[in-house]
Specification:
about 10% strand; single chain; 4 helices; alpha/beta
Length: about 180
């Protein structure tokens, strides 16, 4: 679909912002966002050309329009430093199998404090319940008030690989890995 034309899945108009030069600028997002904008989603680092988005500037655009700011950190987490607090990120998601050195099947989601109670999981696993052992057989699930309400069933073998991979970051630190 050409940039600027929206489609309406699930009652929302989706607007895409076409990159220019190296990537998509905050100014381009600022022109597309308005008071009806609910979410601005960007990649922290573009997979095709390595362009690093100015997350702080994009966060200011989201704040001006009243939107949540979602960052795809798949190409950034583990490769470059990320600071969700400094940059005003509401949500950051990253797959483990890229620069976090983990395996497929694992990933991470950061949710800014204060937003957790405003989102509902689409497919919560059994550990998403306030008291998991009491929700096995329904009839309804009383969701946890904590981030565990977003838990899905754990992939056991990828989780073991994940523990070993993250040990590299604990041992050397992100700065040493980035310098390397």
């Amino acid at each position: 679909m050409p940039s600027g034309q929206g489609r309406r899945p699930a009652g929302y108009e989706v607007r895409s912002v076409a990159p220019g030069g190296d990537g998509v600028t905050a100014e381009a997002f600022g022109q597309a966002a308005d008071g009806g904008t609910r979410l601005i989603a960007v990649s922290a680092v573009h997979s095709a050309n390595g362009y690093r988005a100015d997350l702080a500037a994009l966060s200011r655009v989201a704040a001006r329009s009243g939107a949540w700011f979602f960052v795809d950190g798949c190409q950034a987490a583990g490769a470059v430093p990320l600071d969700v607090v400094r940059d005003g990120v509401d949500f950051l998601a990253a797959a483990s199998h890229k620069f976090l050195l983990g395996s497929r099947g694992m990933g991470y989601l950061y949710v800014r404090s204060g937003l957790l109670d405003r989102i509902q999981p689409v497919g919560p696993g059994w550990k998403a319940a306030r008291n998991p052992a009491e929700s096995f057989y329904g009839p309804a699930m009383d969701l946890s008030p904590t981030a565990s309400k977003l838990d899905a069933s754990l992939a056991w073998f990828p989780a073991l690989a994940e523990q070993a991979a993250l040990g590299i970051f604990r041992r050397f630190g992100i700065t040493a890995l980035l310098d390397r």
